[in-house]
Design brief:
41% helix; 2 domains; 20 strands; alpha/beta; 20 helices; TIM Barrel
C-alpha cells in the first residue's frame, strides 16, 4: 500500500487521488505545466490561477547552467522559480536521447535534485524510442533498472520516480513495470511515449499504458510523460494515468496554435473562438492573430492552460458521476486515430472490469464500442451464477405467450439476457439505449445470450425474437436453443 497516494474515487481504471508531497497535497488526476528555467513564458507563481497545483522543470538544464545551478543550490528550487507548490524535476533523459550523452552521471543528477529541494526526482533513465530492435530495448531497459535501484541510495527525503521503459515491446513494458514496482518508488512515469502521440499512434499508446499497468500494483501513481493535449486526457485517465506534464500549452502557442478538446486550430484560420475562458471572452480571433509575436504567444498559452485544466475538472466530475466512459467515447470520436485508441481500449475490457465500479448512475450506448464496455462484461459474468432449470423462454418482446415455460427472461442490447427482477437495477434499469440499435449491439447481445445458455447445460431454452434480431449470431443460437420467429 502506497504511503504517498490515497485513492478517493474511481471509475474504469481512472481514479481521483491525493498525492502527498513535501510541499503539499495534490489532487490527481492533474497536469504539471512544464517550465523551462531559461525561458519562462508564464511565471510559475501565476500558474495556480489557471488550475495548476504542481509543475515540472528540468534539473539537467539547471545543473549545466551556472547561474541557475548556483541559485538553486543557495536558495532552493522553489525560491529560485518563485513557486510554493510541489515541483517535479526531470533528470536530463530527454537530452540524453537527443544528444547521446549528458554532462552528469546518475548519482550526480539524483543528488543534485535532492540538494535543490525537488519534491519528486527522476533518475537518469534511458528513454528507448518506439519500434527499436528487441535486443536494444532489452539492453537499455537493464541499464535503466540498474540506475533506478542505484538512485534510491541518493534520494534523501524527496519522492523518487521510477520510469517504466521497454519501447513498444509490450512484454518488456510489463516486465519493466513489475521489476520497477518491486524496487519500490513513489511515482511511476511511463517513458518514451511522446513519439507515439506525435504520430497519432493512440492504439499503441493504449497498449503501452495498459501493459505497464498490468505490471504495476493498483496503488502505483502513474505519470504519462509528455502527455498534455486536452484531446487525449480522458482516454489516458480512464486507462489509469494520474499525472501528466504539458509543454504543449507553450510550444503550440509559439506556433500560433489554439488547443481544444476536439483538436488543434491555427489562430489565423479561426473566425470565432469556441471557448469562454477569460482570453477568448476578451479578444477575437482576428485580434489575437494580429498581435505581436510575444503578446499572441502569451495569450494563446493562457488559453491553452485554461482549456487543459477545464478538461481535467470535467474528467474528475465524470469519475465522481460514474460516467467517465461516456466522456471517453465522446472525446475519441473527435479524431479517427483517437477512435482507434478507444477500440483498442475495449480489447482490455476484461482487465478493466476487475477494477471498475460495480454500480454507476447510468449506462449510455454511444456506438459499437459500447457493446464491449467493462460494465457489459461484468454484468454477464455475474449473470452466469444465476441458477435456472426446466424450460426457459428468452424473448425480445414482452407480449409473447409464455405459458408452458418455467422461467421467462427478457433481452436488452448490448447486455443480452435479464430477469424481470433486475429490470430496475444497474445496469439494465439505468441504461439509455436508442431504439434503432446498430447491428453490432444486437450481435453483442446475441453472443451474450449464447454464452448464458451454454453456461447452463441441461436447461431447455427457447429464444423468441422479432425480425431486427436476425443477425449473424442467430445461427449460433439455433444450435443450442429452440427458435421462434415472431411476426
Amino acid at each position: 500500500m502506497s504511503d504517498v497516494f490515497e485513492i478517493t474515487e474511481k471509475d474504469l481504471l481512472g481514479r481521483i487521488g491525493k498525492l502527498y508531497t513535501p510541499h503539499g497535497i495534490v489532487e490527481t488526476p492533474t497536469v504539471m505545466p512544464v517550465i523551462n528555467p531559461n525561458l519562462r513564458l508564464i511565471e510559475p507563481r501565476e500558474l495556480k490561477r489557471y488550475g495548476a497545483q504542481m509543475l515540472i522543470t528540468n534539473s539537467y538544464i539547471i545543473y549545466r547552467t551556472e547561474r541557475l545551478r548556483e541559485a538553486a543550490l543557495s536558495k532552493g528550487l522553489h525560491e529560485m522559480l518563485d513557486f510554493d507548490g510541489p515541483i517535479m524535476t526531470d533528470s536530463g533523459s530527454f537530452q540524453l536521447s537527443v544528444y547521446g550523452s549528458v554532462e552528469v552521471d546518475n548519482p550526480g543528477i539524483v543528488s543534485f535534485e535532492r540538494d535543490i529541494g525537488t519534491d519528486i526526482g527522476v533518475p537518469l533513465d534511458i528513454p528507448t524510442p518506439p519500434d527499436v530492435p528487441y535486443a536494444r530495448a532489452r539492453e537499455e531497459l537493464e541499464i535503466t533498472l540498474a540506475r533506478e535501484a542505484e538512485a534510491k541510495a541518493y534520494k534523501g527525503d524527496m519522492l523518487l520516480a521510477g520510469p517504466v521503459q521497454g519501447s513498444t515491446h509490450l512484454d518488456l513494458r510489463e516486465e519493466a513495470a513489475r521489476r520497477t514496482y518491486e524496487i519500490g518508488f513513489d511515482i511511476y512515469p511511463l517513458g518514451a511515449v511522446v513519439p507515439l502521440m506525435e504520430t497519432y499512434r493512440y492504439k499503441d499508446m493504449v497498449d503501452v499504458i495498459v501493459r505497464s499497468k498490468m505490471g504495476l500494483g493498483p496503488d502505483a501513481v502513474v505519470h504519462l510523460f509528455g502527455a498534455g493535449h486536452p484531446m487525449m486526457l480522458a482516454l489516458a485517465v480512464a486507462l489509469g494515468c494520474d499525472l501528466f506534464d504539458s509543454a504543449a500549452y507553450a510550444l503550440y502557442a509559439k506556433d500560433g496554435r489554439y488547443l481544444t478538446v476536439d483538436g488543434t486550430y491555427h489562430i489565423g484560420q479561426l473566425t470565432h473562438l469556441p471557448c469562454s475562458c477569460p482570453v477568448c471572452m476578451a479578444h477575437t480571433a482576428k485580434e489575437i492573430a494580429g498581435m505581436d509575436d510575444a503578446t499572441r504567444t502569451r495569450l494563446l498559452a493562457e488559453h491553452n492552460l485554461y482549456v487543459t485544466f477545464a478538461e481535467i475538472r470535467l474528467i474528475k466530475q465524470s469519475i465522481l458521476d460514474g460516467d467517465l466512459m461516456e466522456l471517453v467515447e465522446r472525446r475519441c470520436r473527435s479524431h479517427p486515430r483517437m477512435l482507434s485508441g478507444l477500440k483498442q481500449m475495449m480489447n482490455y475490457s476484461a482487465y478493466i472490469e476487475k477494477f471498475d465500479r460495480v454500480t454507476k448512475s447510468s449506462f449510455f450506448y454511444l456506438g459499437p464500442e459500447s457493446a464491449r464496455r467493462p460494465e457489459v462484461i461484468h454484468y454477464n459474468r455475474l449473470l452466469k451464477n444465476l441458477q435456472v432449470s426446466g424450460k426457459v423462454l428468452i424473448t425480445t418482446r414482452r407480449d409473447v405467450d409464455s405459458r408452458g415455460f418455467d422461467r421467462v427472461f427478457h433481452v436488452k442490447a448490448p447486455f443480452g439476457v435479464f430477469p424481470e427482477e433486475l429490470s430496475e437495477s444497474y445496469p439494465i434499469g439505468q441504461s439509455e439505449v436508442i431504439p434503432e440499435l446498430d447491428c453490432e449491439a444486437r450481435e453483442a447481445a446475441l453472443q451474450n445470450i449464447a454464452d448464458f445458455i451454454s453456461s447452463h447445460p441441461g436447461t431447455q431454452f427457447t429464444f423468441a425474437y422479432d425480425q431486427p434480431w436476425e443477425c449473424q449470431s442467430i445461427e449460433r443460437l439455433a444450435a443450442i436453443a429452440g427458435l421462434i420467429r415472431l411476426g
